[in-house]
Amino acid sequence: MSRPVGDPSSGLARSLGLRDLILIVIGSVIGSGIFIVPGTVLSQTGYQVGPALLVWLAGGVLSLLGALTYAELGGMVPEAGGLYVYLRDTFGRLPAFLYGWSMFFAISSGSVATLAVAAAGYLNQIVPLTPVMGKVASVAMVAIVGYVNARGTRHGAMVQNWATAIKVVAILVMAAVLVSAGTGLREADRAILPGSLNAALLSGMGVAMIGVLWAYEGWQYVTFSAGEALDPQRTFPRGIVLGTTALIAVYLLANVAYLAALGPEVAGRSNAVAADSVRAVMGPGAGTLIAGAIVISMFGAANGITLTAPRVYYAMARDGVFFKRLSEVHPRFGTPAIAVMASSVWAALLALSGTFEQLLTYVVFAGWIFYALGAMSLFVYRRTRPDGPRPFKVPGYPWTPMLFVLSAAAIVVNTLFARPVQGLLGLGIVLLGAPAYYLWNRKRGV
Hints:
Radius of gyration: 21 Å
CATH topology: Amino acid/polyamine transporter I
Number of helices: 19
Largest sheet: none
Order of helices and strands: HHHHHHHHHHHHHHHHHHH
Shape: globular
Mean pLDDT: 87
Oligomer: single chain
Number of strands: 0
CATH class: Mainly Alpha
Strand content: under 5%
């Protein structure tokens, strides 16, 4: 079978349609967060339904502001690497490299390792696993998604589409059952609005936002695959915006379902709110069902990351600032297969080591520095490329991207004040990439 014609500037085939892009957004984001975080958010907001749902809505709106901003960027510069390319074009190669460095060694690989290890833990609820078997299962999951995405972009997209469809349908069915059979919404009626809006509640909502944004993390990954989108100037903006909007709806519905099953007090004390909700309404035997849904959800999220993130390393290698072989396109599969497998090997090593969780915690917040810079690149493009193609223009410009930038900056500053040690360690890990960048430039004679 012949491959779709690719973009000569990228070397990758364009084979992703609108449906693929939408499902990449949804599937890359929905992992374990929506099955666990809602209980924590309720407890941090004093078990008050209104403030808790408001935090989920605010996190979704913030993500949508970013998606609208990146929609214009992706439509204008539909190249493999996405956010890395925007940073390189507007702020220079060093910030772009530091982002790619952080993605490879911590953010992307650490996320895949986290999902794989957590999935093995939930698989243990279905099929008993020894500790060694659990490690084998987690590495096997990383290997499978790596192999699938090295074999072809369409292979990876097909797996992503099915996994995303299954987990979204599972959430919708779960929500329908819990809302129709649960009685917790009667209790929730008494906790919709807070008696007063005080400093303690606002502080709790601010802390809760960290977990909510982690649950929404990943909507920007689809930008990495813009270089493989069909008719990208039309499909990419629609894909990222529709996908992010659908996420908000799914997350709010899931939260209402948990409240219907358990009520705010019980849900807020749960560390596994989805599993507890299903057991409360359907009986203890239903725990296996939710465990299976979570395993599929995590597999889909890991596949989405593996489908998209290696395009960043591929773009870096093409720029001469990363391992050269990662820039190779497989002659048969038409994918950056070496970049896919290299990142998967590193993710598997992190999963085996068991030391990735702190690394990921330290560095993920620093990703918001790059997300803010990515949004700021829109202002630079507007000034330096005033006549560039813009099939989609972000509505509310300049306020939409500016609000996203300010919100991202607030998240970074708040993290540095609330958790200074972790925040500074995270920045230190990111900045460790600077010597590597200059070393690669020396090799190139730059």
